[in-house]
Design brief:
Shape: elongated
Largest sheet: 8 strands, antiparallel, barrel
Order of helices and strands: HEEEEEEEE
Number of strands: 8
Radius of gyration: 20 Å
Mean pLDDT: 85
Strand content: over 45%
Number of helices: 1
């Protein structure tokens, strides 16, 4: 997957640099991260994200933005029912699940009007830390989409939605203590993340 992303990046650069005046603007982004894990029936976890990017303006209306971010995700008040061998009883605990990723994205930016942008693209999330009792995978692939508005000074405002594609949580260990033994979660538990924040692009001559 990493090779495909790199190849696509090089291909885009090759096509557009031959036909347009390319400019480059590095920048920073940070803001509020609101996350949950799908099908857990739990609360959203408020946290933060911070990162850097390089906006490659390939035309007046299109830019390609590689970026790297540190983002804290997870879900609050996740119910876990389990059998305690020490007391020989069923117990229920509520946990705040924390997952930290280094997220590497390749964002397409379509520009309209005087600063309005539509953003979309893939991201590779590399696991840095978590407190999950059991997980199915360390890393994640995600799709990112959102809108942004950038003013001439370089300051911008953005809202994004990021949806993980992998099943990250082993729901066999988070089950409903009921007579029919149905699992509390479904078998597909993926990252769901909203980002609300600001960006700043540096003017590079």
């Amino acid at each position: 997957m990493r090779k495909i992303i790199v190849f696509a990046f090089v291909l885009f650069i090759g096509i557009f640099t031959s036909k347009a005046q390319v400019t480059f603007s590095p920048g920073l982004r940070a803001g509020l991260s609101l996350s949950t894990i799908s099908e857990t029936h739990a609360d959203y976890k408020p946290d933060f994200y911070v990162g850097g990017f390089g906006e490659i303006n390939l035309s007046k209306r299109y830019a390609l933005q590689p970026e790297i971010n540190y983002i804290r995700q997870g879900s609050n008040n996740v119910a876990r029912n389990f059998f305690d061998p020490n007391t020989q009883t069923e117990r229920v605990v509520y946990q705040d699940l924390q997952i930290s990723y280094l997220s590497i994205g390749l964002i397409n930016k379509l520009k309209f009007g005087q600063g309005f942008q539509v953003q979309f693209g893939p991201a590779l999330d590399v696991l840095l830390d978590d407190n999950l009792a059991f997980r199915k995978t360390n890393n994640d692939l995600a799709f990112v989409t959102g809108v942004a508005y950038k003013i001439p000074s370089g300051l911008g405002f953005e809202i994004r939605f990021k949806k993980g594609l992998y099943d990250i949580l082993d729901s066999d260990y988070y089950y409903n203590n009921s007579n029919n033994n149905d699992y509390f979660f479904s078998d597909y538990n993926s990252n769901v993340n909203f980002q609300i924040g600001v960006t700043y692009s540096f003017d590079v001559k």
